[in-house]
Every structure is written in structure tokens, then in C-alpha cells.
Amino acid sequence: MVSKSRWGVLAVAALAQLTVVLDVSVVNIALPEIDTALTLSTKDIQWVAGGYSLAFAAALLAGARVADTHGARRVFIIGTTAFVAASVAGGLAPTGSVLIAARIAQGLAAAVVSPATFTLLTTTYPEGPTRTRALAVWTAVSVAGGGVGNIVGGALTEYISWRSVLLINLPIGIAVLLMTFRYVPRPVLSNRPSVDLAGAALGAAALGGCTLAVTELGDDGSTSVASAAALLGIVGTVGFVVRLRRSPNPLVPARLLANRILVTGNALTLLTGAVFQVPIWFFLTYRMQQSLHLSPVRTAFGFLPLTTAVVITSIALTPRLLDKHPPHRIAAAGAALASIGLMCASLASTHSDAYFLAIGIPSILIGVGGGLLNTPLATAVSSGVAPDDAGAASGLMNTSKQFGGALGLAALTLATGLADFRLACAVMAVLLAVTAAFSFALLRSTVAAR
């Protein structure tokens, strides 16, 4: 019965995580249809794609800590319900502004759901090979969710409507809630500290302000808004650091910041998120639709090599390698392999109609590399964490991942535009090359020190 319950928790956590990650990219292929239906500017298009990730990242620390203070199960149920409601609102949106608002609301709800899924796993599975395998499944759906989102989004957009890419969350959400009531036990809550609302507000201001500042530097942006957002980000960052030192119940306990493996893992997760969380799916979509002139559904299935490679590598290969080799070597090898794949994609001819050479082979390399890279990082950021801090640790990891994705998308769009796929891939290749070097050097030194 215990084993069955654990598998049930894993199924709930994986499906919920897949859904919230899927929604990072599910609208990507639908963007041209959304643009036609609602007449959006380039900046608005970016907000439909990136507003979700921005809100997700900004609220994650608070959302994760709520799971520690009120129980992961209860918070998970409330967050999932709110996520479904926001999805329905977005699917029925009559204007671009309503759609953007709904996407931001989705992101806020996802900031509660996603860390709760990770907390459910780390409190259900003890450290060791069993947890590694559970996290491998969670990581696989986290990374592959972008590809699954594009496949689902493409099929629904072409055969039904762009609105269905959001409305599909209603039946999925109902299924997740029913499984939660059946498989996830009610926790026994002791006296736990309250959430630091001031710290949460300052953290959101820091993350949101920095990303908005980069976003507004684009051609359609406003210099005054960018300046104000940058100031907000700076003030929020300083205030958040001060609050961490003075608050009796900080969002990130000092004992977590003293965990060198956790801190290093989060720094590398941020770099990885700047490629895998949003940008790679975003730019691949535009590459296939604009340069290769593929239809939405053909574009969707064009992600199969990348998605399949990530899932198979994460679940079937990486846990076995982690049983025999230190995590820093596997993470470094994965980042290096993904970097090679991205560099191959950047060298492909812009006018080439050969999907296999331009997208297929590079995608396999990127997928295998991503599958090798992400599970060691997820294992590192949960290493040595007490159950009472599981939510905070999850919040740190998810914040690093989502903030890296939102900031990476904004920065890459600013630097390369929507059409220069080759330059975007080259920049992402450099980011992963840096990640490979740091993974080998920093994770090795922290593990050795420990």
C-alpha cells in the first residue's frame, strides 16, 4: 500500500508539473493565430508568451514557502483550482489585454502548484536512489513539457482553435484534483512560522522589475518604463536581501543559503533555465514556422526528436549514470552536448528546407544533453534539506529555473529579435558551454568540500 501511495503521489506531481510547464510553451505555436484574432503588437506577443513565466518566477518564493507553512497538499489543491480558473478565463478572453492578464494569473497560480509538486516528492521519498528516480521523472516532464506544450498547442490550434490550448487545462485540472484526493495523504501540521509577506513583495519586485526592464528595452518598449522597472528591481533586490537578514521567518532560511551544493545548483539552474525553460521552444517555433514554413501541426510534431530525447535520457539513462558517476561530470557532459547541438542549429542555413539537418539532428543532441543536465541539478538543490524547508528549497530551484527562462527570453528577444534564429542559438550555445564549465568546477568543489 505504501508503494502504491508513493506511485500515486509521483503521478499527481508529474502530471501537475507537466501541466504548469506545458503552459509555458503551449501558446507558442498558437501565437500567429492569436495575433490574427486579437491584433497584438510584438511586445504584446512577447507578454502572452513571457508574462506567464514572469509571474511564475516573481511569486515562486512566496508560493513555495506557503507549502511549508500550510501543508503541500492543501496549497496544491488551492493552487490547481486557481490555475484552472485562470486557464478558462484566458481561453475565453475577448481581447489581448484580457488574455495577458489571464496568463499572468496562470503564472501566479503555477507559482503555488509547481513547488508544491516538488515538495510532495521530497517529503514522500527519502534521499537516495528512490528519490533520484522520482526526481528523474519529475525533471523529465519539467524539461519535456515545453515540447509537449508545442505538440499539444499545434494540434489543438490547427484542428480546433487557439482557445482550446488554454481550455484543455479544465479536464486535466479536474483529473489532477481527483487523483490528489485519492493518493496524497493529509499531512500532520505542527506549529509552523507564517509567510513573510514583506519579503515576498520585495522578492516579487526584484524579479519582476529586472525582467520587465529588459523586456521594455526592445523596439516596442518604453525607455521610461524600462528605467522605472530597473529601479524597482534594484530597490526590490536590496530590500529583499535586507529582509532576509532581519525577518524572523525569512522566505529563504539562512541554513539553506549555507548549503553550498544547493546554492551552486541553483546558480547553474538559472543558467540552464535561460535556455531550456522558455527560449529554446520559443525560437524553434519561429524557426520552423517562418523559415521552414511548416504548418502549426507539423511544427508541433517537429519537436518530437527533442522531447523524446529528453524523456528517454532523463528516465532511462541519467539515474543509472548517477549510480556510478559523480553528478558534476554528468551535468557538465549534458551541458556540453546540448551546447554542441545548439551550435549545429545556429550553423544551419536560414533558407534550408531540410528539417532533418536544420532541426532534427541538433534537437536530438540538445535533448540528450538536457536529459543528462537537469536531473543532477534537481538532485543537488534538494540535497541535505530538512522536511520543514522542502518548500523553500523547491521555491529557490523553481525561481532560478523560471526567472532564468523569463529573463533569457527577454534578453534573447532584445538581442536577436524574433527572426534571427541562428544568432539566438549561438548565444544559447555559449550559455550552456559556460554552464558545462561551471558544473564541472563548482559542483565538484562543493561536493569535495562537503
Describe the structure.
With 450 residues, the chain is mainly alpha-helical. The protein has two domains: 382 residues, MFS general substrate transporter like domains (Growth Hormone, Chain: A, Up-down Bundle), CATH 1.20.1250.20; 54 residues, no CATH class. It is 82% helix and 0% strand. The radius of gyration is 20 Å and the shape is globular.
Describe the secondary-structure layout.
Elements: H1 2-25, H2 31-38, H3 42-70, H4 72-91, H5 96-124, H6 129-159, H7 164-167, H8 169-183, H9 197-215, H10 223-246, H11 254-257, H12 260-276, H13 279-291, H14 296-301, H15 304-324, H16 327-347, H17 355-380, H18 390-416, H19 421-449
Helix pairs in contact: 1-5, 1-6, 1-8, 3-4, 3-5, 3-9, 3-18, 4-5, 4-8, 5-18, 6-15, 6-17, 9-10, 9-18, 12-17, 12-18, 12-19, 13-19, 15-17, 16-17, 16-19, 18-19
Q: In what range is the share of β-strand residues?
A: under 5%
CA-based shape: globular
Helix content: over 70%
Query: Any low-confidence stretches, pLDDT <50, length ≥5?
Result: none
Rg over CA atoms, rounded to whole Å, is 20 Å
- Kindly state the mean pLDDT as a whole number? 82
Domain Major facilitator superfamily (MFS) profile: 9-447
Transmembrane segments: 47-63, 75-94, 100-123, 135-156, 162-183, 195-215, 221-242, 263-284, 296-318, 330-348, 354-373, 423-443
InterPro entries: MFS, MFS_dom, MFS_trans_sf
Subcellular location: Cell membrane
